[in-house]
Amino acid sequence: MTHPYDYYYRPGMPLRPPPPRAVASDLWFEPRKAMLGAWIDVRREPAETPRTRLMADHLWRPPQQHPAT
After folding, report:
1. CA gap 30, 43 in Å, rounded
2. Residue of 10, 13, 8, 25 whose CA lies nearest to 60
3. 2 and which of 6, 37, 52, 62 could share a cystine (Cβ 3.0–4.6 Å)?
4. Are the C-beta atoms of residues 42 and 29 closer than 8 Å to each other?
5. Selection from 60, 45, 63, 46 nearest residue 14 by Cα
6. What pTM did the predictor assign?
7. Contact by Cβ (8 Å): 53, 15
8. Is 7 helix (H, G, I), strand (E, B) or coil?
9. Cβ distance 17 to 60 under 8 Å?
10. For 39, what's the count of Cα atoms within 13 Å in the CB-facing half-sphere?
11. What digits encode the pLDDT tens for the residues 7-60?
12. Rounded to whole angstroms, how far apart are CA atoms 54 and 17?
């Protein structure tokens, strides 16, 4: 049995909604502002753009398994 969001994205496919774990956190606001504030307008919650939607879809992917070294 597969999960309804278990799929491989191809351009033009509808994007999945952000997973429940993808929530804006005040914990990361100040570090983001310190690192990126000189170049972009840092907001508490990111604006929804094609790129942020693709990132939200990407967050459904499981962590990458790296081979033991």
Report:
1. 10
2. 8
3. 6
4. yes
5. 60
6. 0.55
7. yes
8. coil
9. no
10. 3
11. 677 788 888 888 877 777 888 899 989 999 999 999 888 888 888 888 888 887
12. 10
